[in-house]
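Morning!

As promised:
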Amino acid sequence: MAKRHKIDTRPTIAQIASVAGVSIPTVSKVLNGRLDVSPATRERIEQIIEEYGFVRNRAAQALGKGQSGLIDLIVPRLDDDYFFPIIQGAELAFKETGIRLVLSSTHYTEDEEFAWIETVTDRSTDGVLLVLPSDEAIQRLSKQKFPFVVIHNQGGLPPNIPSVTITSWEGGFAATNHLIALGHRRIAYIGKNVPAMDAIERFAGYRTALEVASIPLEPDLQQEGKFTANDGYRATRALMALPSPPTAIFAGNDHHAIGVYRALYELGIAIPQQVSVIGFDNLAYTELMNPALTTVHVPRLELGRVAASMLLKLIAGEALDMPLMTLPTRFLERESCAPANITCSA
Amino acid sequence: MAKRHKIDTRPTIAQIASVAGVSIPTVSKVLNGRLDVSPATRERIEQIIEEYGFVRNRAAQALGKGQSGLIDLIVPRLDDDYFFPIIQGAELAFKETGIRLVLSSTHYTEDEEFAWIETVTDRSTDGVLLVLPSDEAIQRLSKQKFPFVVIHNQGGLPPNIPSVTITSWEGGFAATNHLIALGHRRIAYIGKNVPAMDAIERFAGYRTALEVASIPLEPDLQQEGKFTANDGYRATRALMALPSPPTAIFAGNDHHAIGVYRALYELGIAIPQQVSVIGFDNLAYTELMNPALTTVHVPRLELGRVAASMLLKLIAGEALDMPLMTLPTRFLERESCAPANITCSA
């Protein structure tokens, strides 16, 4: 092989692949010591790596120099504070590498999502982080050349798509069990039929907890409602108007819980003395609600951080230890639940 | 003048300036029909514009094609929901132009701010939006080649720096007057000595309202406190422990108000029956507090939008109608204030 000039900085995996005339995953396989590469190819790649001084552990440093230095983060909305710690986590991870974070939102419409994919395809990006993308958007992105990582997903995700999610079922199960342990039997859930995977799972966790405790499922106590304060409010007014209202309400998310508090406040019903309430997400303000909201902590900062570091690995051509990371939720007891014998006999 | 080849897309003002060998503001002056350009220069520029087909009204479209297509937005923190609508407003404004928004935060440290300025200077950007930058950061940025717009400012801003701010004094004056009109005389303020301009102004508005009503200023009722819920809490505990506690609390911002509510909840003091409360900012959750918080609306989405469109004009080489835009705050009455005769005689 002809001797080449040294290039200025340590090359990226993409540059090594280009010099060797092979694909990026092939270089990655060699770096990771995998055996499904022909001996001749392996030798050629190893020679180039040695010649150009590529150091595996410095892959991250090489990022943002030879390439665009830009990573796109796409969130459904910028007026929902659920997403901000995710953005913050990603920003923190990228800050160390000198990569710039390009932020966009789709306002939850598929049209905007597709328009965004078309636009980003025309432009330079090193990779993409997608929060709650539609299945169709994932399919379209899969045909593009850059790596991406999904944070949460709306439904079934093809197994080869790198993604980060949370243990939603466990969170729903733990919250409901807490209420059962306090003696509650009439436990309502708000957020049935929200079409996102995380929502389906937490509702399933609620149902399983009731089943395990041999508490019959009552359809009246399972309220639909998008993840907004207004729907939490509406559902609570409906629940408290039942002939036999619940003694506890498990709100599918903290936005709901705000509406639950509001409805109970208007009705003059004390939390937790008359009705216990649990939320889901641990949004910043829940700690300061009166009473402080018992909820399920979702590690949103970590979702952003972990997804960002997975993406950095993919960009460097490294293999992921696991394509699907599931981060633990954590039940967080505060002030909004009380034993049912204080509560009920309504 | 030699005939040149048509270039592919309509040129930016910068490209026209480059071809004509003049500055961008000079091209802008010609486009805006101003007279302080020599006839020869004007003729040369007009000829080039005609030749290359530049259309003034399409200046925004030309953005993001010839240039980097990137605008940097720098906020102090990503864990303070005050800033989210500003980010959202900027994103909405840029979305129409195809410009990509690069988001960074400085975590309120000057070191990070300066590091960021050095980094961005090395990289391509069409312009910068800075939220609450330090005076030193503004001075450093002024030496760079790209345009920037300041959103809020910490102190005195040189007169030539384009910036957007709000009528903070008027907001503080209106809030305090509302309490005075309800018959309150012992009105506390939390947030004295916060070093940002907006905070200084709203405190000044509070003091003026009291002076106009001939209510003596009591130092005990003026509490210091950074704009956090914890400091609002701490200040309220101190206020309610006074020999003669206030009947109304004007919280310097809504984060404070959260802490005020919490402290009063713990003390068993009813809002507004025993103490009236007003906040400042109109953060999303204040509408859903119990009782709903009376506050001063800050048009944060508009701050982002207006600053973004000012920056787009600057990038296009156009002149700004006004370098300093001041957007109106609006007093917003909800549920957290009551007449003093219900309240006091404590």
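Chain A has 13 helices and twelve strands.

Hope this helps with the figure draft.
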